């Protein structure tokens, strides 16, 4: 079981940038597809981005395409989310998650992920 700890959240003005990090424990990190989700107050958890185990493929929700970049460093057991041109609607708690190796759920569905971090708050002010 991989354990995940997010960091890098904070308060930023609209148009600004933040870089989230997710540090993973365990020797099998490089085997997992990793995802970032977010949850705003009163809303359901939403898929943001995912990256394949080798980092060769990335996926984004339409609302963040061209603004967010997911990446990973398997040597450091870390996945990143670079967030640029932030908007007030990006305000949420951001979670990283490790995907099951074998699941019927789509990449964007949270039930397909086996391990979650505690989340990091991102607040974008106008």
Describe this structure in words.
With 126 residues, the chain is mainly beta. Helix content is 0%, strand content 48%. It has no helices and eleven strands. Strands 2, 4, 5, 6, 9, 10 and 11 form a seven-stranded mixed β-sheet that branches. The chain is globular, with a radius of gyration of 14 Å. The termini are far apart.
Strand content: over 45%
| Rg value | 14 Å
Summed up, the helix count is: 0
Shape: globular
Helix percent reads under 10%
Q: CA-to-CA gap between the ends? A: 40 Å
- Spell the H/E element sequence: EEEEEEEEEEE
Q: Given the helix and strand composition, which structural class is it?
A: mainly beta
Number of strands: 11
pLDDT average, as an integer? 96
Provide the fold topology.
Layout: E1 4-7, E2 10-13, E3 18-24, E4 34-39, E5 46-51, E6 58-60, E7 68-73, E8 78-83, E9 92-99, E10 113-116, E11 120-125
Key terms:
single chain; 126 residues; mainly beta; seven-stranded mixed sheet; four-stranded antiparallel sheet; 11 strands
Short description:
By secondary structure, the protein is mostly beta strands. Helix content is 0%, strand content 48%. The chain contains no helices and eleven strands.
């Amino acid at each position: 079981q991989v354990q995940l700890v997010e960091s890098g959240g904070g308060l930023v003005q609209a148009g600004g940038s933040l870089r989230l990090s997710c540090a993973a424990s365990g020797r099998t990190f490089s085997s997992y597809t990793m995802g970032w989700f977010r949850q705003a107050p009163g809303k359901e958890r939403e898929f943001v981005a995912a990256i394949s185990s080798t980092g060769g493929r990335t996926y984004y929700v339409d609302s963040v395409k061209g603004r967010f970049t997911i990446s990973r460093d398997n040597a450091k057991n870390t996945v990143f989310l670079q967030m640029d041109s932030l908007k007030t609607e990006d305000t949420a708690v951001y979670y990283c998650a490790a995907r099951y190796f074998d699941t019927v759920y789509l990449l964007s569905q949270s039930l397909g992920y086996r391990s979650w971090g505690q989340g990091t708050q991102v607040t974008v002010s106008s």
